[in-house]
Amino acid sequence: MAFLKFNKSELVNLEYSLKREILLANKTGAVCSTSIVTCNTRRYHGLLAVPLAQFDGYRYLLLSSLDESLTLRGKRFNLGIHCYGDIYEPRGHKYIVDFDADPIPCVTYKIGEIVFRKRLVLTPDQNQVLIQYELVNAPAKVKLELKPFLAFRSVHFLTQENDVARTDFVPVQNGASFCLYENFPVLNLQLSTASSTFKANPVWYKGVTYSDEMRRGFDCREDLLVPGTFEVELHRGDTLVVSATAGEPVNASGLKRRFTSAVEKIGSINSFHDQLVREADTLIREDGGAKRIVAGYSWLYTGLLRETLVSLPGLTLYGKNNPKEFEEILDNLIAANQERLSHRTTQVEAPLFLAVTLQQYIAFNGHDKEVWAKYGPVMKAVIESYLPGGRQEVAMLPNGLLWAQKDGVALTWMNAYINGRAVTERAGYQVETNALWYNAICFALEHEKKTSAFARKWIPVKELLEKNYERTFWNADLGFLADYVDNGGQHMELRPNQLWAVSLDHRCVSDEVVSEVMRVVNAELVTRRGIRTLSPRDVRYKGVYEGSQPERDEAYHNGCAWPFLLAQFCYAGFGMMGSSFVKKAEWLTEGFYEDLSKHGVGCFSELYDGDPPHEPHGAISSAMTTSALLNINWLIGKYRED
Predict the structure, then answer these.
(1) Exposure winner among 153, 198, 274, 303, fewest CB in 10 A?
(2) What is the pLDDT of residue 374?
(3) Residue 1: is its pLDDT beyond 50?
(4) Comparing C-alpha atoms, which of 99, 77, 88, 97 is closest to residue 4?
């Protein structure tokens, strides 16, 4: 597709091309990522990073890169590219004439009469990356040399030359295996032809620099071990497949078939919705034999409570139309989060999202009795846990509202810290936590018999909330809800958290309040790339996510636009306007498709600058963003039919 394609002038401009990243991920949790010119700019970049159970399941980078060199009639051309400080050497990007990412990343090089093509794919069910090389055209035979750069370290940290690393190799079928450190899996590099040779010559390449880490003020230089070089001769029309596998070596004679099969399983992209669905599938992985959602690539974690509950309906239902997968992931989440759901968590509103997730499931499949029979006991246990004495960090007060406070701790999704200081602590009555609280109670009462002990206990609480919520948070003079209320009164910084109060199935504010909140939010917080986390009129507003780590953390929830919040805005919009809101919803989502050639190519970013032109930042592939866009598309389709 055109939006996943780049021309030569874009590719040779490093200022442009190094900001565009490719991402491949599979069900095992393996990841392959780099820039579109295959120069690594982040510590997370590399050709093969895999989760290791022996190291708490965190992802470890084994193969950083694989440099290619072509020799024709004694003249050698190096296609690799690395940064050393402010110097790029070699500069193989100057030979790139085309990049295409549909269905898999494909880089085309042209050197005189030589046309050489490289394609990358991760096998879906194994810690294996396959690289296909094709000598499309050449006036004579060409010698291809492949130089692997080995890392064997956590994706979060860098490595340096040391005396512990093992620099030897073990021959395997059509290749060699390497293992730098004890307890790591073996990395097998194998070629599809037996005519290749490996020449050992272990050398540390020192000072490899990751420009994006340097720009952000992080540690950015490391040393990588090159154990030697693979060599093979190619003639015009020849193809070669290279496999990098963690663990056991594979049958090298079947690599070409395995590559073809992996590409066929991916399929082509025929619409923007197809791209969303593919990304949704990428964000669901097998973790210890259980399906879980990855919050975002390349550094966000797997199986997080809030992120999973928020993104689960979009990824599995609206994206893949797969209720079975929805329940499998939800069951795994509940089993792994008993403590957070029922006892304690620093994400005080996260357990309450369970009600929203189940409401969306029921709206999708209509099986309300079956859903409540299975998940009702968990939902009621969550509600009961907020009674006094149930949790240390949050509890229901006599007015029915939840008060959340733990000194120095940010207890909501706005949980950035600078040098140990919570940027947005928000202790007290939080507007979204209490909106979710009311919705959860109403959802449970909706499915419980009115004569049950649960109903008799919680109907009075529901009535207390209906009496106290609006009077606690509403500010008629300013025309919107307080973000939180503490002993000092209402805190009236204009933030998007009040969107939950006007968009959930059950809300305890009047229609007039909904209308006013939507008017103000639309005027000051809505952008075409998400909802700003703070009004630009606020003195604390930070409209650009750049600078040092503290500067970025300050902007994270004080101005950055978050796409996932658009789903709540659209739920409220459709609730107010019905099908008349379709055009607005389309306008709010179209811009993301324009950005598919930015940041993560084909991916949907975690956040954007609050200021125009709203550049993407954060994780290049976000579960909550992808889910929100799928959710909005589903709403558009539903109301368009109406």
Answers:
(1) 274
(2) 97
(3) no
(4) 99
Alpha-carbon distances of 198 from 143, 174, 202, 225, 227, rounded to whole Å: 13, 9, 12, 15, 10
DSSP, res 348: T
Tokens 């880490």 belong to residue: 213
Q: How far is it, in rounded angstroms, from Cα 147 to Cα 228? A: 6
Express the helix, strand and coil content of the chain in percent, nearest 5 each: 35, 30, 35
- β-pairing, 31-35 with 170-172? unpaired
CB 79 within 8 A of CB 147: no
Task: Categorize the per-residue pLDDT at 102 as very low, low, confident or very high, splitting at 50, 70 and 90.
Answer: confident
Distance, CA of 273 to chain centre: 17
Is the pLDDT at 326 greater than 50? The verdict is yes
Nearest one of 606, 640, 636, 634 to 620, comparing CA atoms: 606
How many residues in total does the chain contain?
Answer: 642
User: Which of 522, 609, 618 lies closest to 566, judged by CA?
Assistant: 522
Please name the residues in contact with 591: beta carbons below 8 A apart, sequence gap of 6 or more.
528, 529, 614
Contact between 440 and 434 (Cβ < 8 Å) = no
Count CB atoms within 10 A of the CB of residue 119: 20
* Cα–Cα dist 487/489, whole Å: 5
| Cα 360 to Cα 167: distance, rounded to the nearest angstrom | 54
If 0-12 CB within 10 Å is exposed, 13-18 middle and 19+ buried, where does residue 512 land? exposed
Are the C-beta atoms of residues 240 and 191 closer than 8 Å to each other? yes
Please spell the DSSP secondary structure of 110-137, one letter per residue: EETTEEEEEEEEE-TTSSEEEEEEEEEE
DSSP reduced 3-state for 219: coil
| Helix residue spans in 366-452 (DSSP H) | 368-384, 431-447
Q: For residues 68 and 145, is the Cβ–Cβ distance under 8 A?
A: yes
Q: Do 444 and 454 meet the contact criterion of CB atoms below 8 Å apart?
A: yes
Residue corresponding to tokens 């204009």: 494
pTM of the predicted model over 0.90: yes
Strands (E), 468-601: 474-475, 480-481, 484-486, 489-491, 526-527, 530-532, 561-562
Distances (CA, A) of 80 to 48, 106, 463, 469: 17, 15, 67, 61
- Do 179 and 166 contact (CB within 8 A), yes or no? yes
Distance CA 641, CA 198 (A): 62
Closest CA relative to residue 175, chosen from 230, 101, 237: 230
**What was the pLDDT predicted at 2?**
45
How far is it, in rounded angstroms, from Cα 175 to Cα 195? Answer: 10
**Cα–Cα nearest to 259, from 244, 277, 278, 246:** 244
Q: Which residues of 98-107 are buried (b: 16+ CB within 10 A; e: fewer)?
A: bbbbbbbbbb
First to last CA, the chain: 31
Report the chain's C-alpha Rg in angstroms: 26
**232 backbone dihedrals φ, ψ, rounded to 5°:** -155, 145
Compute the distance between CA of residue 130 and CA of residue 118 in angstroms, rounded to an integer: 10
The single-letter DSSP state of residue 173 is T
Beta partners for 622?
Answer: 296
Q: What is the mean pLDDT of the chain?
A: 95
Question: How far apart are alpha carbons 145 and 274 in whole angstroms?
Answer: 37
